[in-house]
Specification:
Its main location: membrane. It comes from Jiella mangrovi. This is Ion transporter. It is a multi-pass membrane protein. By secondary structure, the chain is mainly α. The chain folds into three domains: 122 residues; 88 residues, Helix Hairpins (Orthogonal Bundle), CATH 1.10.287.70; 37 residues, no CATH class. Helices cover 59% and strands 1% of the residues. It is built from ten helices and two strands; from the N terminus they run H-H-H-H-H-H-H-H-H-H-E-E. Strands 1-2 form a two-stranded antiparallel sheet. It is flat and about 60 Å long. The relative contact order is 0.07. About 3% of the residues have low confidence.
């Protein structure tokens, strides 16, 4: 009786020799790897992300120049390539495309492709700064250099800056004519004055919607200022992963984890 052929578990396994598979593996290593090449690539991607934010901030100055459309479309092309590359690098591309951060990037891409038609929604590009903060890409260099204690206050600063420019963009595009704003700087001035509750009264938003906008700006602004103060003046924590529950922030002299009670061995200068 002939011997049965051994069953191959790789019969239905995907082939990693195809060009598409090799491309996806290469992109995954660049976006999520720790090699020197990957770190340089991730730094370049971070610069592109910050360029998109800088383009929004400089848009009121650049929009009347001849170079605006060239810069705008160049950033749009780079963002499109980045979205496609991240999707290919993902293990579940379709699931990634449904994530809120990716949907936001797609909307930002649309505003870049049609800057004149969708200029009123251009202020949403600043939300990319908040999404970068949430994904952790901004904080990886700090963690590698042992400066993780700066992450919390810098997160609070970025949240405040994001809200300031987001509110400024909304006020500038919505109340530009009714409030008599002469330019983007006036909208930023009004936003900062409202957030700090200074209320000079030289610029006001008329009507019910203007008053509601001012109230929302003041409430959220005060909350973000309190968050920033807490991040700066709260007792310093050290970053050390608890091997039992994974809690990362502990008191410098902690012996046990506050979450699970596991014994910690936090290194210090004397040990």
């Amino acid at each position: 009786m002939p011997a049965a052929k051994p069953f191959s578990h790789r019969r239905n396994a995907p082939s990693y020799d195809s060009p598409g598979a090799r491309l996806r593996i290469g992109l995954r290593r660049l976006y999520h790897g720790d090699s020197r090449k990957a770190l340089r690539f991730q730094a370049a991607v971070l610069i592109v992300d910050l360029a998109i934010i800088a383009l929004f901030i400089a848009q009121p100055v650049l929009k009347n120049t001849e170079a605006f459309l060239a810069v705008d479309y160049s950033v749009a092309a780079i963002l499109f390539i980045d979205i496609c590359a991240r999707t290919l690098a993902s293990r579940r591309p379709l699931r990634r495309l449904r994530q809120p951060v990716v949907l936001l990037d797609l909307f930002i891409l649309v505003t870049l492709l049609w800057p004149e038609t969708l200029i009123n929604f251009g202020f949403l590009r600043i939300v990319r700064l908040w999404s970068l903060s949430k994904t952790g890409r901004l904080w990886q260099p700090l963690r590698r250099k042992g400066l993780a204690e700066w992450e919390l206050p810098l997160r609070a600063v970025l949240n405040l800056v994001t809200f300031l420019f987001l509110a400024t963009g909304f006020i500038y595009t919505t109340f530009f004519r009714s409030a008599g704003l002469e330019g983007y700087l006036d909208a930023l001035y009004f936003t900062v004055a409202s957030v700090t509750t200074t209320g000079y009264g030289d610029i006001t938003l008329d009507g019910p919607w203007g008053k509601l906008t001012s109230i929302v700006v003041m409430i959220i602004g005060i909350s973000l200022f309190v968050q920033l103060a807490q991040a700066i003046f709260k007792p310093t924590k050290v970053h050390h992963d608890c091997p039992q529950c994974g809690l990362q922030r502990h008191d410098p002299d902690a012996v046990h984890c506050k979450a699970c009670g596991h014994i910690l061995n936090i290194p210090n200068d004397e040990s």
